[in-house]
Amino acid sequence: VIAYGRLNMWDAIPLLLIYSGYVGYRLRAGEKRNSEGEVNKRKAVLYLLLGAATIVALSDLFVNYLYDTAVTLGVPPVWLSLVLTPIASEIEEKVSAIRLATSHAEGGSLAIVSFIGSKIQNATVLLALIGIFTDFDLHPALPEVISALIANVIGVVTLLDGKLGAKESVMLIVLYFAMIYFSFLYY
Residue 162 sits in which domain range? Predict the structure, then answer.
């Protein structure tokens, strides 16, 4: 995708296949573990539907206010979206991760798996959907694509030893803000 600078239907197919393989792997891995209690499936589906409906209902409003705020602050809308959109769109993951990490012995591990799963979905399904519905020119977004690639490589290398301590955490936070700063310089 980066090589020829476009995202289209032909890119969507391998991205969806990669994500399907990941989901299959996670399902097989989940079946091997013992479950600690039955999940209320009706309640889970209801929460999922309510959350999806809320996101759909408020997304246009969020984008409009994001643009208006960027104009008011005198910063590029793309830059403000790089800063605020991930925070707003993934707030549930962050709250859940903090709760998991502080309340259960294996909570930190579950939180990391949740974050990684989300990033895999973002890098496959969301890009595939863009490719299915548009023929998107990646050249204007190339700095963000390269930054995301670098950040993901650094994140994977950081987790290779199976440990995530305070030093690694601080380094990743500094990396996040450095990427935001450099993207601001670009715009």
Answer: 6-36+76-186
Distance CA 55, CA 47 (A): 12
pLDDT band at 12 (very low <50, low <70, confident <90, very high): confident
Cα separation, 146 vs 154, in Å, equals: 12
CA torsion 178-180-181-184 (nearest 10°) is 160
Sign of CA dihedral 120, 88, 141, 151: negative
Task: Report the distance separating Cα 91 and Cα 71, nearest Å.
Answer: 24
Instruction: Name the residue type at position 120.
Output: I
Do 152 and 118 contact (CB within 8 A), yes or no?
A: no
Residue 80 located in a structural domain: yes
Residue 159 banded pLDDT, cuts 50, 70, 90: confident
